[in-house]
């Protein structure tokens, strides 16, 4: 999940919008709002994509609160049962919750930064085992797994955010490849190397 | 052990070949009349086959040193055989290259030596194959020799291509960092240079030339730390196996991890880089 | 809004990279979109330049609102550049992949025969028409680069032969389905592949010809 200039995922993650408050009047910037006012006014709030919000905030033209996707409410839900939380739509449809969270963390002060990073890490660690299980299951059959409790089965799959979905795909593919390899007669076992 | 060489028709199953074929021993003396051409003696080949209990490449056992010694003795006899030691070393280099994110040193001597031997052995095989006096049994053994040759070729091919992939991925970075140049072969460095130019030309002609002049560079670094130049990430984890005791390392979380002989770890590369480069741990 | 077009480009590109198997055909080069984004970026550049000129140094350091306004334009321009390059970069990766999959057979890669083999039932563009002229140049350049690199190894092994799996059987029986003419195999052997003839050869030597459809395994 490194920040790669050429990474399409990173670019898309950076596009998620934040609610920003302007700290000054800016004539002529009204087009950002898309409305009829040609100017931005101090204390005016509008939604800006992160790639704008980050630099504008660092230069103290705007501020933004911690997005609701990383609020205490979400943290509490994750602590209760991480796989139950639908991360998929917290940062826009099929968003990138971890990546975006990391970008936000980069611009926070020390303490809120550590808290946010810990939340991301804990969530990831707790969601990974069910993700692997589900991927392994899907590798061997194409049947859906019914929900047997909170945050299991297909409901969990639908709640996966962008990077988790990619991991799931990899897990599924790997599982299939291993199965193919095992089923081959001895003496003729190609191993698919990636 | 009943040798499948002596009873080729009795077994319907595919014979169990050992995981690693022993090198073949073309020896001047033979059981046949014509001694002017090299041939394969049954005895030495079979005894090697039976004696082989080769461990998986990458995992050393107590036998390792013993086999190494054996190799040295035989080496003088015939310079054409594919040294098991060399193949194994390339296997390890291959594994290291595939398992790590950055660029490692080019094993030029090793590759050159193996290529030479492959060439020699191919000539030998061709000679024997086209000779009408070659027995059916010897033809069969030739198949085994060729199989091993194919495996070694595969290894070289995969090793070279893995490096090429990395070189292309980090080409700008390589060009901009002279200290890395010694890790590459001459051909690789030249490739990095030419590939970077090819890419730059492509980007320029496609879009950069149509953008304002101050946007045309390919090596910018921006205020938030984002760089246009892709570099290897030293924090990528690597799966390692400790062939000997390497003491303890401190993880980012503050915990200690003991790199004891025989243990396996998944750990950030930069924490164990020195051990990987020195060969004290192997990359799986 | 600035950056919207660029977002379209990236979103479409990302969608096409999502499936790993089977490999989808490379989509057609989005020339109109790219031209529009370049235009937008040039306009941003002009706007910034003229604002800097008309306001002078003092304003630029003291008028916070002006700086904010210019910063937004600057960021938008850089964003466009990033999106454009990411789009190109990802396509380059796809192009190289296809070159290696075709065993380095450039002519085959660009031919319509390859297209029929790869996507038989779609009217997706064949590779040649999906590429921009610059991408075609890149492909040719890359092909030459790799041919040069290969020659160091060629008398012993063919770098572009498959590495998907370690070798199994050495020999393979093949029948020629299309004339391939005289071909120099790995190791220097010359074979004349005429339609209908059968051969028993080393798999490594003819794998590429099988992939390209000249030979058929029997």
UniProtKB/TrEMBL annotation, chain A:
CDD domains, A to Z: GINS_A_psf3, GINS_B_Psf3
A Pfam short name: PSF3_N
InterPro entries assigned: GINS_bundle-like_dom_sf, GINS_Psf3, GINS_Psf3_sf, PSF3_N
Annotated DNA replication complex GINS protein PSF3 N-terminal domain residues: 6-57
Record key words, sorted: DNA replication, Nucleus
Subcellular location: Nucleus
Highest taxon listed in the record's lineage: Eukaryota
UniProt GO cellular component terms: GINS complex
GO biological process, one term: mitotic DNA replication initiation
Role this protein plays: The GINS complex plays an essential role in the initiation of DNA replication.
Oligomer and partners: Component of the GINS complex.
Family of this protein: Belongs to the GINS3/PSF3 family.
Annotated protein name in UniProt: DNA replication complex GINS protein PSF3
Organism of provenance: Tremella mesenterica
Automatic annotation (TrEMBL), chain B:
Domain of life, per lineage: Eukaryota
This protein's UniProt keywords: DNA replication, Nucleus
Location of the protein in the cell: Nucleus
Organism, as annotated: Tremella mesenterica
One GO cellular component term noted in the UniProt record for this chain: GINS complex
The protein, known as: DNA replication complex GINS protein SLD5
Classification lineage: Eukaryota, Fungi, Dikarya, Basidiomycota, Agaricomycotina
SUPFAM superfamilies on file: GINS helical bundle-like (SSF158573), PriA/YqbF domain (SSF160059)
Biased composition (Acidic residues): 67-84
Compositional bias annotation for Low complexity: 26-39
Similarity section: Belongs to the GINS4/SLD5 family.
Domain GINS subunit as annotated: residue spans: 123-204
Region span, Disordered: 1-84
Stretches with biased composition (Pro residues): 16-25
Gene3D superfamilies membership: 1.20.58.1030
DNA replication complex GINS protein SLD5 C-terminal domain location: 233-283
UniProt GO BP: DNA-templated DNA replication; double-strand break repair via break-induced replication
TrEMBL record, chain C:
Classification via SUPFAM superfamilies: GINS helical bundle-like (SSF158573)
A Pfam family annotated for this UniProt entry: Sld5
Keywords attached to this entry: DNA replication, Nucleus
Presence of keyword Nucleus: yes
InterPro entries noted in UniProt: GINS_A (IPR021151), GINS_bundle-like_dom_sf (IPR036224), GINS_Psf1 (IPR005339), PSF1_C (IPR056783)
Keyword Nucleus: yes
Family of this protein: Belongs to the GINS1/PSF1 family.
Subunit structure: Component of the GINS complex which is a heterotetramer of SLD5, PSF1, PSF2 and PSF3.
Function per UniProt: Required for correct functioning of the GINS complex, a complex that plays an essential role in the initiation of DNA replication, and progression of DNA replication forks. GINS complex seems to bind preferentially to single-stranded DNA.
Protein name: DNA replication complex GINS protein PSF1
Upper lineage: Eukaryota, Fungi, Dikarya, Basidiomycota, Agaricomycotina
